[in-house]
Amino acid sequence: MKLQTSEIIPLSKPKTRRKTRTVVAIVALAFILTIIPLYFPYSQNYNQLSLSFQIGFQSLDHNSIRSTTTPPQPNNPNLRDEASEDSPKNIPPDAAAATSANSTSSNEKRGDGREGKRTSDAVVKEKKKCDLFSGEWVPNPDGPYYTNTTCYSIQDHQNCMRFGRPDLGFMKWRWKPDECELPLFDPIGFLELVRGKSLAFVGDSVARNHMQSLICLLSTVGHPVDMSKPKAGNRLYVYTEYNFNISIISSPYLIRTEKTVPGDFATPFNLFLDEFDQTWTGKIHTFDYIIISAGQWFFRPSYFYLNRTLIGCLYCPEANVTHLPSAFSYRWAFRTAFRAINGGAGVAFLRTLAPSHFEGGPWDKGGDCVRTGPYKRNETGLEEYNMEMYSVQLEEMRIAQKAGRGTGGKLRLFDATNMMVLRPDGHPSKYGHWPVANRTIPNDCVHWCLPGPIDAWNDLLQELLKREVKKKSKIT
Questions:
Q1: Is position 186 annotated as part of the catalytic site?
Q2: How far apart are CA 159 and CA 153, in angstroms?
Q3: What are the Trichome birefringence-like C-terminal domain coordinates in residue numbering (predicted)?
Q4: Partners of 177 in the beta sheet?
Q5: Collapsed DSSP state (helix, strand, coil) of residue 459
Q6: Are 271 and 257 in contact (CB under 8 A)?
Q7: Mind listing the pLDDT tens digit for each residue in 347-363?
Q8: Is 0.85 surpassed by the pTM of this model?
């Protein structure tokens, strides 16, 4: 309004009007000269920014993400996610890579292979934990890290080097998760991680195989004291310097069993599907960590009991007894074992089944495992019966985890199935014994050579225990 007033002042004051126009012109010129250099760089940057967003959205287009072929998974696509606190939620590897690539500004890889600082705290919060169980076997020319001459814990039937296996390339691989690097086993670091702790392996002879691999890897820095009773099947090893002990407890069915013929392992077993095996459940409160596993024994002839009543059998001759599949007893065994674990105090890991690799026939009809290298994940998959057993493990684990939330249960996934289905080359075959004249000994395509692929299980174990320590430190 003042401007309008000045414009209608009498003509007797023209100088004031000319002065106002000059000031306005100077201000306008200054404004233009200031805006031009500011505007055009901004416009250029804006166009670049817009282009980067377009590229980002293109790379995240679902149609551009490659699909990868993996061993068959259970029908429920979220089953592993519910069973494992550490698994990312349904993120294909390529999508995760695209997201990482497009969520950074100056974080292209540097010359040293490291990534630069991310542009936003939100990106860091959204970063998923690496899924350790989805990956491939990659060459590792530095392996193995012990031999049959440096480790005394290798049993003959796993001592492939002693019995003349000619190819040694099966020892030159390591497990590489899709989304991260898995550190190789560090014996000193591991012992520091478990200082003052107790670790138990519960299961069949493959659980023993795993325990022996761990002791062999630790043998590069020290040897434990065997505190086991003479002639005891179960063993206790103590690393006195670290106040750390390892137990192996034989419980191939995980539940209470009886031999139908005392002392004869070839005859059927009675399985009490709803009863604890006190050989390990009675000690569960003494273990900081426990790894349970079971597999091959469930394909043997057996009788099934619930509430001390015979309700069925597997491969039994009686026609008046209900014949049930092996998955029936397998499900009940894990359900009962998980019930015991949810009442325990430590952290329990379910190590999922490790498939056998008999080719050319079953184990008792000349089946063998003669391959000398691993499969790629798109070259093989689980056989139907293994798929069923694997699914049972994950389903029962999911149920147990939900039930354990109210009781403080700490049940974690240790998925060895998808990695070990790729390793037909890692079994002893005929190299677990010397040839015997006029006698045919079945080839061993169930256990694992030491050194061998099973050593990678302890790379995984080390990382899983590190994650547990981190969780505990966050709580405290």
A1: no
A2: 10
A3: 182-463
A4: 135
A5: helix
A6: yes
A7: 999 999 999 999 999 99
A8: no
